[in-house]
Amino acid sequence: NDIFRDGKDLSEKRDDYLEWPEDFMAVSFLSAQRSKEPNFQVGACIVNAENKIVGIGYNGMPNGCSDDLLPWNRAAKSKLDTKYPYVCHAEMNAIMNKNSADVKGCTMCVALFPCNECAKLIIQADSLKSSLLSLCFMESTSV
Ligand SMILES: [Zn+2]
């Protein structure tokens, strides 16, 4: 029974563990891997003041709508043949999927800076309860 493995003392507490913000960003990036979006895979998670995740989302077609039938194009003659009218962004899905009554004091962790529509949703989710929904994000290298 060695107490050392790879030069580390196994009788001591680890000190190279993920900090909370890194952990939540990792959850967001993992959730993004569920996305079928060919251009940008984005994930988001909402975390409460006790560092508990209360909602997770990724970008995709609306519930019950076939992602085989709806378009994934970025450009077409008609806007209706592009993805834009249909795709629900990760932030929206994280808010809609929340398993808490509200998002008071919560933080949204998202891997891409929110668009104007999601910024409105985040503000409205906040103002419903007169609470603070702060935002943390990391710049995506896949833009
Ligand atoms: Zn958005």
TrEMBL record:
Belongs to the cytidine and deoxycytidylate deaminase family. GO terms for molecular function: dCMP deaminase activity; zinc ion binding. It catalyses: 5-hydroxymethyl-dCMP + H2O + H(+) = 5-hydroxymethyl-dUMP + NH4(+); dCMP + H2O + H(+) = dUMP + NH4(+). It is an enzyme of class 3 (hydrolase). It holds the Pfam family dCMP_cyt_deam_1. The keyword Metal-binding applies. Catalyzes the deamination of dCMP to dUMP, providing the nucleoside monophosphate substrate for the thymidylate synthase/TYMS. Also, part of a nucleotide salvage pathway that eliminates epigenetically modified 5-hydroxymethyl-dCMP (hmdCMP) in a two-step process entailing deamination to cytotoxic 5-hydroxymethyl-dUMP (hmdUMP), followed by its hydrolysis into 5-hydroxymethyluracil (hmU) and 2-deoxy-D-ribose 5-phosphate (deoxyribosephosphate). Catalyzes the first step in that pathway, the deamination of 5-hydroxymethyl-dCMP (hmdCMP). InterPro entries: APOBEC/CMP_deaminase_Zn-bd, CMP_dCMP_dom, Cytidine_deaminase-like, dCMP_deaminase-rel, Deoxycytidylate_deaminase_dom. Its cofactor is Zn(2+). Its EC number is 3.5.4.12. Keywords: Hydrolase, Metal-binding, Nucleotide biosynthesis, Zinc. It comes from Vombatus ursinus (Common wombat). GO terms for cellular component: cytoplasm. This is Deoxycytidylate deaminase. Residues 19-143 form the CMP/dCMP-type deaminase domain. The lineage of its organism: Eukaryota, Metazoa, Chordata, Craniata, Vertebrata. GO terms for biological process: nucleotide biosynthetic process. It comes from the Eukaryota.
